[in-house]
Write a structure and sequence with these properties.
2 domains, 9-stranded antiparallel sheet, 718 residues, 15 helices, Glycosyltransferase
Length: 718
């Protein structure tokens, strides 16, 4: 097995064990913050904590002390809507002259924080619950390393920019860095009221509080790149973000169940999708994940939009608009760009601007382009928005042309990839680790590589393109696309099916040899509809057999395969979004009890992780009684398409389809697994009207009830 070839420059390093696997996260737009349960930022563990803005860390340390000691942590949480962090803190025993002069728990501190428009707002409320007057000294220590996110991930730079001298004023401190790109980046910490004293590394407050008395102070940590703007106060900023958040959440129906665990999971999942979208300059575009991928990703945005399309089609429209506007129009090997190709990733950090990394605007994914057309077709089916399809058609047409011309580089009818840039990704499917595509003996597949799931995406894209073309009165194009799709399907079934393994090959290598490995990739063929119905049940059983299903979900690579490693990123781990797509595929082929099994596995996993938030991935180790899933150390959390996974599987189990144009909500053989007896969907939107629905499982069937009839919406149950 070639070990050298698996080394990769964009590997996320973990030099030490995390200080706390339960980091807290806030995000608004281009800014996110990672801190511990005290609300502190410390340069310990894997060193990923900080306040980040536009791909750079603006604060790498921010630690709160009382009497020069860390306070007691009583409790802390992030609200269910992800907007607001609070921590209840208290003093430790304060000693003086060999005796305790202030017993622990005398002073209560309520620490609150949120992000809005490039600023981290903090508030500290102090109250003396003791019987005596107390003197309270507080200290906040801070640092700013101005590290690019790729430096935080572990990359070493040959040269960095210039750290400027701190600017210390009464009540504020400014830390600044001039990058090699000439950009000035600044972090300003402003206090209200002004502190007792402050320096370039510490802010100190002093209060004297009588019995039962309280006081408070506020801080605003603003991150800027270039010209600084005025910062609203704590209360004003909180009201603005709360109003924005409420407006965004109102666009999603509320899902609840007789199973409170399921309700909590659905609520957090919806809030996470909104969190990854709100404040982004790209309207209605969810970023991929915090901390490593808090930016535009084509594949992730498309999949998240597909997952949530039944709930809120505005995300799909936003994703399609932005990806259409940034579609490649010329050949550029350094960017992996070709006419018609859809964006993989876009960044604006210092290293991206200087091209130390290739991801400023990067097109190195083989699947985003067909997925783009799939999303366009799904959006049109949901909304019937023909006017938008007319606008989007040139982009759809260009994407379809890329599939046939640049995507099929050797003219064999399959979509392949082979890297053109020395700095870019070697593997360009969703499993983009260097060692993710291999043969049964563990040897890496040589390019050009035709991935199993990508052929399904291409097939589904041609079907979607055909239907859109027909609606646009382009009958000849529609007919040609349909014929091309069926030809691809026929060739796929011949070349990829492995009867001895009851699965589709992971890929074909450059010599058209199949990678005879059991992987989750094959499950995507069910989602796209390219799979033969006679293969569907066999494949589903393969995916849910013990080597593949670990009790929480379907592994990326089955136990027993040559490169199987349950602790790896792509070769044996469990990814929620992957499971969501596969479960939707089960339901498409009528295997709803199997889809339900995946749903319950993910539900159980969500109830063993903090905030009911499914991370980007977890390890593929076998489920053990009484324990939760084994966490992957550098997984993003939240991750948009992980949040959307459960929403997609629920829709699939219900056979739910919404037709805005005809104002119909259709349930095709609705199914609820035995963990869910009752399900309520409140404020479902269809064709501009709203309706509440109540579903109940009765033996093996599901009834759909409407508490208040709505004459504008027709409910169809098949």
């Amino acid at each position: 097995m070639d070990q050298v070839s698996v080394a990769q420059p964009y590997y996320i390093a973990s030099r030490t064990s995390p200080a706390d696997a339960r980091s807290c996260v806030l995000k608004y737009g281009k800014t996110f913050a990672i801190f511990d349960h005290y609300g502190d930022i410390e340069p310990i563990g894997m060193g990923e904590e900080g306040i980040f803005h536009l791909g750079m860390r603006h604060l790498s340390k921010f630690v709160f002390h009382m009497w020069q000691e860390r306070p007691l942590l009583l409790s802390s949480t992030i609200k269910a809507d992800n907007c607001f962090f609070t921590a209840d803190l208290a003093n430790v025993d304060v000693w003086q002259g060999g005796r305790i002069v202030i017993p622990r728990g005398t002073l209560h501190v309520l620490r609150s924080k949120f992000l809005y428009d490039g600023v981290c707002h903090e508030q500290f409320k102090l109250r003396n619950f003791g019987a005596q007057e107390i003197y309270v000294p507080l200290q906040l220590q801070f640092e700013a390393d101005f590290a690019d996110i790729f430096e935080v991930r572990g990359m070493q730079r040959k040269k960095r920019g210039r750290t400027l001298d701190p600017r210390v004023l009464h009540g504020s401190v400014s830390l600044a860095y001039e990058g090699l790109d000439g950009e000035l980046r600044e972090s300003c910490i402003a206090c209200q009221p002004a502190p007792f004293q402050n320096s370039a590394k510490e802010i100190c407050f002093e209060f004297t509080l009588g019995p039962g008395k309280e006081t408070e102070f506020e801080m605003a940590i603003s991150c800027s790149s270039g010209k600084r703007k005025s910062v609203p106060g704590y209360s004003g900023a909180l009201q603005q973000i709360q109003d924005e958040l409420n407006t965004s959440l109102e666009k999603f129906p509320q899902v609840s169940s007789s199973n409170s665990r399921f309700t909590d999971w659905m609520k957090r999942s919806t809030a996470d999708v909104v969190m990854m979208t709100i404040g982004n300059p790209e309207k209605n575009y969810p970023y991929a994940g915090v901390p490593w991928f808090s930016t535009v990703f084509g594949r992730d945005g498309i999949v998240t939009a597909l997952q949530t399309l039944w709930m809120n089609p505005e995300l799909a429209k936003g994703v399609l608009e932005f990806l259409g506007d940034t579609q490649a129009i010329e050949v550029n090997p350094e960017m992996e760009a070709e006419p018609g190709k859809i964006l993989h990733e876009m960044r604006s950090s210092e290293m991206a601007v200087l091209k130390e990394i290739p991801f400023g605007r990067y097109y190195g994914s083989v699947d985003a382009t067909p997925l783009f057309v799939m999303l366009a077709g799904a959006y049109f089916e949901r909304t019937g928005n023909l006017k938008f399809m007319e606008y989007l058609w040139p982009h759809i047409e260009l994407a379809l042309r890329w599939i046939d011309e640049y995507g099929d580089m050797d003219g064999d009818g399959f979509v392949e990839y082979s890297p053109h840039s020395k700095k870019g990704l070697v593997q360009q499917g969703w499993k983009d680790s260097n060692d993710s595509v291999f043969h049964a003996d563990g040897s890496l597949a040589a390019p050009p590589i035709a991935l199993c799931e990508v052929q399904g995406y291409a097939y589904a894209a041609k079907i979607a393109g055909s239907r859109i073309a027909m609606a646009l009165n382009r009958q000849q194009q529609a007919k040609e696309l349909e014929g091309s799709a069926q030809k691809l399907r026929h060739r796929f079934l011949e070349a990829f099916w492995l009867p001895e393994l009851s699965t589709y090959a992971l890929a074909l290598d450059g010599k058209k040899r199949p990678c005879q490995v059991k992987t989750s990739n094959a499950g995507h063929s069910l989602f796209t509809g390219i799979a033969d119905p006679e293969h569907a049940s066999l494949l589903a059983h393969t995916l849910l057999d013990k080597p593949s299903f670990n009790g929480w979900g379907i592994r990326t690579v089955a136990l027993g395969e040559a490169r199987y490693n349950p602790l790896s990123y792509h070769n044996g781990s469990v990814w929620p979004h992957d499971n969501g797509l596969i479960a939707a595929g089960f339901a498409r082929y009528g295997l709803k009890t199997m889809a339900g099994k995946v749903l319950l596995g993910l539900l159980d996993a969500s109830n063993h992780v903090e905030l009911y938030r499914l991370p980007e991935l977890f390890c593929g180790l076998e489920r053990r009684a009484g324990e939760g899933p084994t966490l992957y150390p550098v997984a993003c959390s939240p991750q948009a398409w992980s949040a959307g996974a459960g929403l997609m599987v629920l829709q699939a189990c219900l056979g739910l389809r919404i037709d805005d144009m005809h104002k119909k909500i259709i349930f095709d053989k609705p199914y609820l697994p035995h963990g869910l007896r009752q399900l309520a969907i409140k404020d479902m939107q269809c064709g501009g009207a709203h309706i509440d629905l109540l579903l109940e499982r009765e033996a093996d069937s599901v009834s759909v009830n409407i508490p208040e009839k709505n004459k504008d919406i027709e409910i169809v149950i098949r």
